Amino acid sequence: MFDSNINDLFIGMKYRILSLRVIFLSLCIYGCTDYCLPPENVESMNQAYGRNYIYLTNISLYLTVTTLAIGLCVRYFKTKRFISLYVNLVSVGLPLSLLVTVLFWGLFLIDPTLVRNKELHDKGVRVNLLSDLCMHFFPFIALLFEQYDVKLKRETSHVIFYFIFCPTYFFITSLFAKANGFWVYPILDQLSFLGKCMLFGCSNILVWLFYEGLMLLFSKKSFFVISKSVKPQLK
């Protein structure tokens, strides 16, 4: 009787965890869609070159959604061939989503028009709190939850990725800024070229420090694997 109760407890836990993963994935998918933004914001983005695909928020969101989807496949559909890809995506995606969360909320609390269209903001157009959380908070929490049964390990290739991604993103957004006549985020229009370089450079260093800190933190933990059928431990 006791063994049966314990078994039922773990089965119930397994399905609750699955439900939570699906909820996180759904929230992040919602954050990727136009439905989470006011029509005025969607129209403004659609009129610009690059649309919403050049926003760091969306790039991080797409990476998060891909990671969560692959995680479900690895855990529940036993697609073990994707384990290595999945672990690498969690490793690089988690610090990047943390960077997005810190930068957005830090700037938003100082002045919303640093990250939002000032003209629309002055007209009273607002993004609701749930949408902002789906774009700038839940992705980090979702990836943080993903890593609890994954053995993450520091890799030099991950650090190289960040130091390639940030300058590349700066270069690409500068091209779209010339085409559109404005930068993807209003704060960049207020900065000189040197100021932009410093902002991107500091962001690059910050995401690297996030990565090093998270890898150090996770290396000190013992990880519990819910699904015994995925062996060895996700690493």
TrEMBL record:
It is found in: Endomembrane system. The chain crosses the membrane at residues 15-33, 53-74, 86-109, 129-148, 160-185, 191-211. Keywords: Membrane, Transmembrane, Transmembrane helix. The keyword Transmembrane applies. It comes from the Eukaryota. GO terms for cellular component: endomembrane system; membrane. It is a multi-pass membrane protein. InterPro entries: ADTRP_AIG1. Signal peptide: none annotated. PANTHER family: ANDROGEN-INDUCED PROTEIN 1-RELATED, AT02829P-RELATED. This is FAR-17a/AIG1-like protein.
